[in-house]
Task: structure prediction
Amino acid sequence: MSDLTRRTVLKAAGATLGASAFAAAIAPLTQWKPAESIDEFLSKHYKELSPDELAAMCRRFEDEAKRNQGLDIHVAAAQPLPGVQFGYALNLSICVGCRRCAEACHQENNHDRPSHNSYIRVFELENGSIDLANGDATYDHPVPATGKYYMPVQCHHCDNAPCTKVCPVEATWKEQDGIVVVDYNWCIGCRYCEAACPYHARRFNWKKPEIPPEQVNPDQGLLSNRVRPQGVMEKCTFCLHRTREGRLPACLEACPTGARVFGDLADPDSDIRWVLANKRVFILKEELGTKPRFFYFFDK
Amino acid sequence: MTLATLKRPGLLAFARQAFAHATDGGPLFYAWMTLLTCVALVGVNAWANQVVNGMQVTGMGDHVSWGLYISNFTFFVGVAAAAVMMVIPAYLYHDHEMHDAVIVGELLAIAAIVVCLLSVTVDLGRPDRFWHMMPVIGRFNWPISLLTWDVIVLNGYLGLNAWICGYLLWSRWCGRAPSPRLYLPFVFLSIVWAVSIHTVTAFLYCGLGGRPFWNTALLAPRFLASAFVAGPALIIVVLLALQRLGSYPFGDKPIRMLVRVVRVTALINIFLLAVECFTALYTGGSHAASLTYLLFGLHGHHALVPWIWSAITLNIVAAGLFLWPGLLRRSRLLVAACLMTFVGIWIEKGMGLVIPGFIPSTLHEMVEYVPSLTEWKITLGIVAAGALVYTLLLKVALPLISGWTPGLAVGVESMDAQHRRLFEQLNQLIAAVRAGRGAAEVGRTMDFLDSYVREHFADEERLLAEAGYPGLEAHHRMHAGFTAELETVRAGLSADDSDREALAERLHLSMRDWLLRHIRVEDRAYGAFLRAREAD
Result:
């Protein structure tokens, strides 16, 4: 065999070996199921969907839940109520740090069970300081502890939201009623928003959320608590599937002390307007200019 | 005399030749490529598993949500930008030798951008939705999101460098002088663009008000300074390696120039870090928390402390070595200094910059980060893929720059074969001189070249006389001029061989470049004459 042919044969053998090694290396991808259906894979951005397409998408999620888990769920695409501007206030004087809000969020929003995820983190702070550097979100003892007070933190639904600005694909935006949402079908999972948020309000689905079928909350919103896919961002939506229908957020309903006040900032007679007008109110990290819609206040 | 039909060298033939160059080599080449392929495949496999099982296989979490991938991305944007440190002297100051060597930097920019794009891609939670970022079919949040700017500048930089390198090599292959109009504007654009890629990447971070560690106007200058340390350091190592492997057709001048660059930028980089440390630490408060964590540890957490002090030590020692004038004469020490500062900056602006931005978290929680095995596999795989791309690009480009190409064919088979041989001989001589081979070996190579040149010129002139070529007289004078130059070089060689670099440069400029021009213009003119006569 001449040198040239031997070289060619060796090259061909090398190329074949390389190609088969490559095929073996990417073989795990055969188990990858990025979307339930081709419809989901090709689905348009939320804002480009017509009301009919939105309804069809809701039905599709319902059908999938029935087919895959035998669950009867209801998915709705609740739209912002005209003229309503949602806001939230929290009374730090009476919050006892029981974390029932965080637990209610966990249940309501179909969070991953093993990681016990929640959109709310409650910080235990020393009386006399509001510096979070002295805070602790992992406390494990009866509450309220002497000399301590408690500060739950969740998405502040900023009017000048750093998270929506940085998103490269417009997968997160502020709705007309002030709620910052994520399109779970559009997010590419770059987590730039998570880096941009000054309030640690965003969560990423590091894996597919696991929830036993009997624990799934069947009352679901397309932009809020429907079970999220793997690899996308999620966040507090002020329970828009509830609040846009006139109900209160789950965290508020769970609060045993009445520390939480939710309402329409555009309505001069609302509770939240009364709080803003009559209490000593502050917002977290005001110096960043994020203009939050989440307010803290003290009674005494 | 055999006249070949002279075809215009086509794109397909170019691709075929490029493929042949890229896949042919010695045992060392095959071993290197096999190693890189294996590492890259381990990375591919780890990534495939990450895609299926989710990002839970990384060490990241909701507190530290970017890790090794984005660190490595940030670092390699700098490496890509550093090509400009060769482009500026080559094109702005018409440094002749740099003009050829600059391709080593430009090709590195291409490979580094490949590393950057791969690093960002593996960081995506949903790579299947990649198309959401494409203009028209997706929703490209430009100009608000800095990430879209980064997509534009990185791909633009890749395109610019691919066009410049591709066009220059294609011209060389065709035996044409490249038309300045078709590449110079892009070269100057690429200079500005190089600065932009790293500035925009810094803006990704420093535009985030919620992360005080990144939220400093000094970030872009720091990124550029460190880029112009790590990038040139890597290019120096590559040039020295090519020299060692004998596939280096350029002189020491580019290396000396790059060492001068690093000498300054290494100090600026350390200075900027010191300025940052002073501002944050002297002011104190929450702005100092991340830096305190990085340098000294905070609340009992100090995962990054050994890393950053290693980086600082490496950078300071390397900067000191670069200041020492004797470094250039000790190539091993030079390589060591380059590698030290390369690693130092990889730590400083990769893990040392990205990770502390998340620690403490925005709500001041202390959660540390350690990259998982999957992340290391994927990252090393990406770097190996970049090295693979770079090796292949160099394998294609270097022979084209220094040797005979089909574009130089005059159409007379015997003459073309001799021309090809001439280039080989001349390159061998240049390599022997550069490598500092003994006078005996250089002398032997020189003798061989000398006799070969005379034989070839005689053959060629005989051919032209037989054909009654009207330009023979002028052609003969040119040949005589070249032979005389060869004689002078030879005389200089025996008289004084202390400055081998000057000699090599002379061989390069007055002999190889002359030969190139002569064949391209005068020899092809007689080729055309012969073919026309044949046709009559």
